[in-house]
Amino acid sequence: MNVEAHIKTEKSIPIRSKTVIHLSLVQNKINETIHIALKPFDISLQQFNVLRILRGQKGAPANLNTINERMVTKMSNTTRLVDKLILKDFVARQICKKNRRKVEIFITEIGLKALKEMDAVMTQTENKLLNGFTENELTQLNELLHKL
Predict the structure, then answer these.
(1) Which candidate, 40, 100, 105, 130, has a CA 20 to 30 Å from the CA of 32?
(2) How many CB atoms lie within 10 A of CB 140?
(3) Is residue 132 part of a domain?
């Protein structure tokens, strides 16, 4: 992607600024592509992330703090995300029997089934996004991004 052409400028952009702009443009493209892939499921990327976190609990409950800590995108509206997933019957919430102040959140069977379908679509989407890269290039890219 030619950054200057994309933002329609003829002036030379300093390499650090150009890099930040480029990363931002790539992030937007990735988010847009994933949004389109998840649209048939009526779910956001953040909701998808919550479902994956809960599946990773392997049947053990999670609380809002656990979910928020493990979110790829940190946000303060985790409660709202969980509420939306409850309305879809993808997750369930219950009061902890040992500590009534603690709320436990589980992924439901319906949520696991839906997530399995979403996983297949997301794998296709990731492959489409990264089609031009070799495994070595992806490893190198991840090493470079780790420096950030």
Answers:
(1) 105
(2) 12
(3) no
User: How many helices, marked H, and strands, marked E, lie in the chain?
Assistant: 7, 2
Give the CA distances from residue 58 to residues 19, 22, 52, 55, 78, in Å, rounded to whole numbers and listed in that order: 39, 38, 10, 6, 20
The alpha-helical segments, DSSP class H, found in 1-148 are 3-6, 15-38, 45-56, 64-70, 78-87, 109-129, 135-146
Asked if 113 and 129 count as a contact pair (C-beta separation under 8 A), the reply is: no
Number of compact structural domains in the chain: 2
pLDDT tens digit string along 31-57?
A: 999 999 999 999 999 999 999 999 999
Whether 37 and 53 share a structural domain: no
For residue 84, give its domain range: 42-118
pTM for this prediction:
0.86
Q: Residue 1: how many CA atoms within 13 Å on its side-chain side?
A: 15
